[in-house]
Design brief:
CATH architecture: 3-Layer(aba) Sandwich
Distance between the termini: 26 Å
Helix content: 25-40%
Strand order of the largest sheet: 3-2-1-4-5-6-7
Structural class: alpha/beta
CATH superfamily: Formyl transferase, N-terminal domain
Order of helices and strands: EHEHEHEHEHEEHEE
CATH topology: Rossmann fold
Shape: globular
Number of domains: 1
Radius of gyration: 17 Å
Number of strands: 9
Strand content: 25-35%
Length: 212
């Protein structure tokens, strides 16, 4: 199936660029219907415009509540014909209103091997913890913070000579590939969110890549 995709960004949008490039080149079966940001100065908006994709700003500052902001965002996504949502560096916690609107159809990329180092500055958390490896995760979004069922993960090493910036750059390079790969599995029907007696988890069809 072709993913009718909305991409939410708050910053430079390098993961967005990876998705735009993959959709353009046919490596990702998706139509990016709109790119939306809560920040008017987000460079990701320029990336969208350069690719001929509608770019929309819904500034969170004027809204009296998170729910009111999410309601406005959902309205813009629905107006654009979005059915699936990709969070590509969107620095807002989603409310139940948003989660219900796109239930089971929101994916996020996070710069750690979840459940390790959830929340903000995951790269810095890993670096300061002195671990020898970290990575990135694509997961379905639920009501928790970076707690949703994992689709794919990829590890990266942390060397003794690394700076924190080295770690960030190494993770980001892998994020660009992993987000495309995970969304491609979803589009192909090879990765599905299922619920059973043990809760929700991702079922990956035999022969598809699986998390390490």
């Amino acid at each position: 199936m072709t993913l009718e995709l909305g991409v939410l960004v708050s910053g430079s949008g390098t993961n967005l660029q990876a998705l735009l490039d993959a959709a353009r080149d046919g490596r990702l079966d998706a139509r990016i219907r709109v790119v939306l940001s809560n920040r008017p100065d987000a460079f990701g908006l320029q990336r969208a415009r350069r690719a001929g994709v509608p770019a929309v700003v819904v500034d969170h500052k004027p809204f009296s509540s998170r729910a009111a902001f999410d309601e406005a965002v959902v309205a813009e996504l629905r107006k654009a014909g979005v059915e699936w949502v990709a969070l590509a560096g969107f620095m807002r916690v989603l409310t139940p209103l948003f989660l219900d609107a796109f239930s089971g159809r929101i994916l996020n990329i996070h710069p750690s091997l979840l459940p390790a180092f959830p929340g903000v500055d995951a790269q810095g958390q890993a670096f300061r913890a002195g671990v020898h490896e970290t990575g990135c995760t694509v997961h379905f979004v639920d009501a928790g913070v970076d707690t949703g069922p994992v689709v794919l993960q990829r590890k990266v090493p942390i060397h003794s000579t690394d700076s924190e910036d080295d770690v960030r750059a190494r993770i980001l390079e892998q994020e660009h590939e992993l987000f495309v790969e995970a969304l491609s599995l979803v589009a192909a029907g090879r990765a599905r969110l299922v619920a059973d007696a043990h809760g929700k988890h991702v079922l990956i069809e035999s022969g598809a890549p699986s998390p390490p």
